[in-house]
Every structure is written in C-alpha cells, then in structure tokens.
Amino acid sequence: MRAIWITRVGGPEVLEVRDGPDPAPRAGEVRVRVRAAGLNFADIMARLGLYPDAPKLPAVVGYEAAGVVDALGPGVTAPAVGTRVLAMTRFGGQAELVCVPAAQAVPMPEGMSFEEGAALPVNYLTAYHALFRVAALRPREKVLVHMAAGGVGLAALQLCRTVEGVETFGTASAGKHAALRQQGCDHPIDYRSQDYEAEVRRLTGGRGVDIVLDPLGGKDWKKGYRLLRPAGRLVAYGFANLASGEKRDYLRLAQEMVQLPVYTPIGLMNDNRAVAGVNMGHLWGELELLAEEMTALVGLYQRGAIRPHVDATFPFARAAEAHRHIQSRRNVGKVVLVP
Ligand SMILES: NC(=O)c1ccc[n+]([C@@H]2O[C@H](COP(=O)([O-])OP(=O)(O)OC[C@H]3O[C@@H](n4cnc5c(N)ncnc54)[C@H](OP(=O)(O)O)[C@@H]3O)[C@@H](O)[C@H]2O)c1
Which ligand 1 atom is at minimum distance from the Cα of 333? Predict the structure, then answer.
C-alpha cells in the first residue's frame, strides 16, 4: 500500500509517498481502505518536529480517515466488510490502508461524502469537547474563537450556532471574513491588521467574553485570560504560534516560551476565571466519552446542524502542497488528502 511518509524534520519537501506491505488487522481491529484522510495542524507540527506526541520519524501520521471496511481481525463482527466508516486513527491515517480498533470505526451517516467523513473526527470532536464538556457553553454567552477559519474554528462556529443566542467573535485573515460570516460568525476580526483584544473590548462595551477557545498559545493565552468576564473560561488546546514558517525557528520558540502565562489557584479564585486544557490525543483511552461525543456529532450532522466545510482536496502525491496550503494560511476549513 502507498502512504505519505514524513521522512525527517523539515519543510514540506521531506514528505514522500512510499510503497509498503499491506497491514493485517489484529484481534479486535478492522482494516479500512482509505478514500480520504484529514490533514491537521498537528501533522504540520509533527513535520516541523514541534509535536511531542508524534511518532518517531520517519513515520506515517494522520489522526482520521474515511473509507470502507475491507477486512476484519479475529473476534470482530462489526462494522461489517463493505461498511462506509469514519475512523479515528492514532497515526497511519494518511495511507491507502489503516487498521484501527473496531470501536474507532464509526459507520458514516447516509449522504456523507468520504471527504466530509475525513473532515469530521478531529475538528468536530475537539470543538465539541472544548465547548460543551470543558467550557460548558450556555445560551446567550459570548465566545471568542481563534484560527476561526481553520478546521476546528469553523466546527466551533457551527456548534455555537446550535445554542440559542450565542454571539461569536472569530480571528482570521481579512480575506476569509465573508466565509466566516456565512458560517455564522457574528464578528470576524482581522488579527493581522488590528489588536483583537482591543477590538473585542470595543465590541463588547469593555466587558469581554465568556469563553475563549485558544490554540495559539504564548502571549495570546495572556490576552485571552484578560478578555474573560467574571465566570469566564479560557480553553487552551494548541500552540500554533510555535509554527512560524516552513522550518523550525529556535529564536521564535524561545520568544514564545518566555511569554507563557502562569496561573495560580488563588489568582483564578479571586478573578473568578477558569483555565482549562484540551488534548484529544490524550483522551484515546476514554472510549465511552469519545463515543458519546461522536454519537452527538453524527446526530447533529443528520439534523443538518453541522456540515464540515472541505476547502481543498489534494492527492497523496501532492501532500507537500497541502501542507503549504495550510502554512501559507490559505485554507478556509478542512484540507483533505486522497489516495
Ligand atoms: N488539542 C487538541 O486536541 C487539538 C485538536 C485539533 C486541533 N488542535 C489545534 O487547533 C489549532 C487549529 O487546528 P486546525 O487543524 O483547525 O487548523 P487549520 O485548519 O490548519 O488552520 C490553519 C489556519 O490557522 C490560521 N493560523 C493561525 N496561526 C497560524 C500559524 N502559525 N501558521 C499557519 N496558520 C495559522 C491561518 O488562518 P488565518 O490566517 O485566517 O488566521 C490558517 O489558514 C491548531 O493549533 C491545532 O494544533 C488541537
């Protein structure tokens, strides 16, 4: 089978499509013939050598794929061979074939395309978990979403729309604001030409927001914390600020690390604020929790309340272009790789 390998730390040119033996499903696993695989910011960080959870290089990464079950391991009866599934893959998803525990292969709702299927698991589980489980979003709250036009960002905006009267603020490059409005973002903010902290304050009459979803890190976590109203919640779930170019930049890394905020329980108590973290990659053992969230998302998809927005689809052979597409900040929504 063919797969996209990150051969070593470096720019997009280190990606290679290589042929290898077909994997065989082990006990409890199904094998999925991949029709579309999601590309995530984590994969870019893995290529840059900035993702501590990534497998040792050279490696095939990929947290999600959609395809058709084509073989069952010993002891597995469902999902049956031939079932269209979306799969949560802890690496190896960017390949023609991937084996996963049967519980991580969820039958796709009717009408969902493989590209949509590959766009759902990581982006929507992250946004759903952060908004509903961790931040416990309530009607009429105000939510600031960073990287709002990215995969998780659009998922978060769509999920906010499922709760009555929620007002959303989204940071994104100016060219994406029309798309953001279409996705229900009330206040797109161009963080590149203005200080979003000042803009959010202006738009909220100085009061700030109830929830900040922040995958940027460093000084932005400080800004997000300052923007919280009493009883506000900051959810940290990424450190995209570390990725400043096609190659790892040690000076930038150092600058970002020294700007990390320090929170103390006494400070949080007196400020009436909460700071929480989300790393879906560390929830792999929580099958019940993930299944509950995935079932809710499939239900929302079937009701038409959420719809993954696939920005671009690249064949495996053009994986380097797909990485560049995200790193040059051109994507609105999900980037998908197809074998
Ligand atoms: N903790 C978790 O479990 C978890 C799970 C999924 C994702 N994440 C994190 O969530 C964030 C969003 O992921 P995603 O897959 O949704 O992202 P994505 O779709 O790849 O978003 C890319 C967009 O983010 C913006 N951006 C901001 N800073 C950037 C930078 N330094 N380099 C390149 N683009 C940058 C750009 O849009 P604009 O120019 O419009 O800003 C770009 O088009 C990432 O930090 C990721 O690591 C965390």
Answer: 19
